[in-house]
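Posting for a labmate who doesn't have an account.
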Amino acid sequence: MAPASKDLFDDSTMSFGEHLEVLRTHLWKALIGVAIGIVFALFQGSMIIGVVRGPIDRALKAYGQTAEDDAQALENIDFWQRTKSWFVDQFSLDALTGGGETENVETEEDGFTQPETTDTIRVAINAGDLGDALHLIQPEVYPTPPEDARIQSIDLPISAPEFRQFKLSSERSSQVVALNVQEPFLTYLKVSMISGLVLASPWVFYQLWLFVAAGLFPHERKYVYLYGTMSMALFIVGALFCFYLVFPFVLNFLLGFNEMLKIQPQIRLSEWISFAVTLPLLFGVSFQLPLVMLFMERLSIFEVTDYREKRRMAILVISIISMFLTPADPISMLMMMIPLCLLYELGIWLCKISPPKSPFEAGTV
């Protein structure tokens, strides 16, 4: 049996112009996919913006619930006391187990969550005080309440049209704001275009891969499948880690200084969208560290022993990079630095178990 040829282009008759024509075809298909993704995102823009706004909306809502309660306690608290108090609150047993949360006034009926009527508020009144008031109005109808009634509380619903406006004003005070008329519209378009690109990115990469894969050896395609999948997984993990774990800690920490300085926060919608898109992107890129280490080791720039011996220097470099990639607060810096230190160890492990440096040593299929 004749040995397999190592040149995949032995029977190729395509000219340079024909290769360009194939590339043009794949690029047109990719652009059509991007257009479809953007159109779909335009119809779902409100839902997408709601998801992106989720962390800041929850943080502002929590800030509004705690600001009034903490006003007295924060009168004479300085920076370091505030920081210590924040760490105690975030890592207390109640915070870790989900305890101590404010009760929701929504009621669940027939499997659906129905909010209370917007023009109704509920007031807790001491039963003894209520009985005394009724007794003063009509003594012959309402007798003097017993003593044990004074330790009981009655929850009374009170309705008035003014309560509707009061609730709307209270809710709007804990929402992001726009500083000009066209800002929400332009933000909607920006988010829709970015979301469309993200949704269409698998199709775009697939079209580019169809063009590039034709010129690769089988064993080279195997490496692309392996490391490409790993790179995508690391990027997604980094972005989700930032969005669902980093944002709550960072926002609660930063908004806490508004309480300390007695400042009402007004978060601009466009600025938050830019921040909410940029920071997860930076986390996703930074999580590529193990693959960067493996790539540099394959090029013989570094050896595994170098990574081990220079671990302290690497941690210093990681901390400096985390300082520049994240906002000025120490929480986001630490929450990027700690995972990167763990990923550094993962990179050392990948360098140990990875295939030979020369892919041609494995032969072709």
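Reply:
Got it, the structure tokens are right above this. Confidence is low (pLDDT under 50) at residues 71-77, 93-117.
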